[in-house]
Design goal:
Helix content: 40-55%
Strand content: 5-15%
CATH architecture of the largest domain: 2-Layer Sandwich
Structural class: alpha/beta
Radius of gyration: 21 Å
Number of domains: 2
Oligomer: single chain
């Protein structure tokens, strides 16, 4: 089942910590529910982050688990701040799917992104992003277009923050050969890819057209991993986006990524191919 796309990062952090604290206290969800006069399903929703956290409920749980004062205050502060909005929630015209993905990227420690048709959003230049958005939504106004491009560029800050996440991008060669935008846009986009790929926390690999059919033809996806919270998978198509949290879904997408990587070029060979394509474009 898809997770709640509106669940904040802080809420997920507290929910995961509450589950750990309950297990350390040697209590089952049913036992906690009975002692606090709650339903077992409510305890489950709280621990999975599928229910909005109420500070009274969290305080009751922390008291039952006899959590030290310092830890209790820290977790309660996270609950109070769980509704604080990041820049992406204030950005006008930003689709909810973008808001959800940006929210999770902001806390992720590792992101693995496979793209079959376009350059990954975190690696796009502004002019490439503009051409892509215009092509997908030709009726978008200039103001809306500017806001969407600005949001995509701001989103890339996760690659330059002090504790930069590990970003692993796999792209189909077709995405690099598809002419996007006016003359010169693709050449500059490819040079940008080469520059970003030199960063130690960024790995870029390309699936060459010569491999023919491969597992990636089923579509793009993003696997996000966190320091404390469970991993997520983000998938999106024409009109629908899903955030998947179930173990079976995560396992399936990890297998798919492994199969795609089996067909992909190594980083060094990837660089050689991008240089070749850029030279062909002049």
């Amino acid at each position: 089942m898809p997770g709640n796309p509106h669940t904040s990062i802080r809420s997920r952090q507290v929910a995961a910590e509450l589950r750990i604290l309950r297990e350390q206290a040697g209590l089952s969800g049913a036992e906690v529910a009975k002692r606090l006069g709650m339903s077992p399903s409510k305890i489950s929703r709280i621990e999975t982050g599928n229910s909005g956290l109420q500070i009274e409920d969290v305080a009751a749980l922390l008291g039952l688990y006899q959590v030290p004062a310092a830890t209790r205050d820290e977790l309660l502060d996270l609950v109070r701040r769980s509704e604080e909005r990041g820049w992406w929630t204030r950005q006008p015209g930003l689709p909810q799917l973008w808001r959800s993905l940006i929210d999770f990227e902001a806390k992720a420690t590792r992101v693995q992104n496979y793209e079959a048709l376009v350059v990954p959003g975190l690696l796009q230049t502004a002019e490439y992003a503009r051409a892509i958005i215009q092509g997908i939504a030709p009726t978008v106004s200039e103001v809306e277009l500017n806001n969407l491009v600005a949001a995509r560029m701001a989103r890339q800050a996760v690659l330059t923050r002090a504790s930069a996440l590990q970003f692993f991008a796999v792209v189909d060669e077709g995405a690099l050969r598809r002419p996007i935008g006016e003359h010169g846009v693709m050449h500059r986009q490819l040079r940008h890819l080469l520059s970003v790929a030199e960063q130690p926390h960024v790995t870029l690999r390309v699936v060459p057209l010569s491999v023919g059919a491969h597992a990636g033809l089923r579509g793009p996806f993003v696997i996000l991993e966190f320091a404390e919270e469970p991993a997520l998978v983000f998938v999106e198509n024409q009109t629908t986006g899903l955030i998947l949290e179930e173990d079976a879904d995560l396992a399936a997408y990890r297998v798919a990524l492994g199969n795609i990587l089996h067909a992909a070029l190594a980083p060094a060979a990837t660089t050689e191919l991008i240089v070749q394509i850029a030279a062909e474009l002049g």
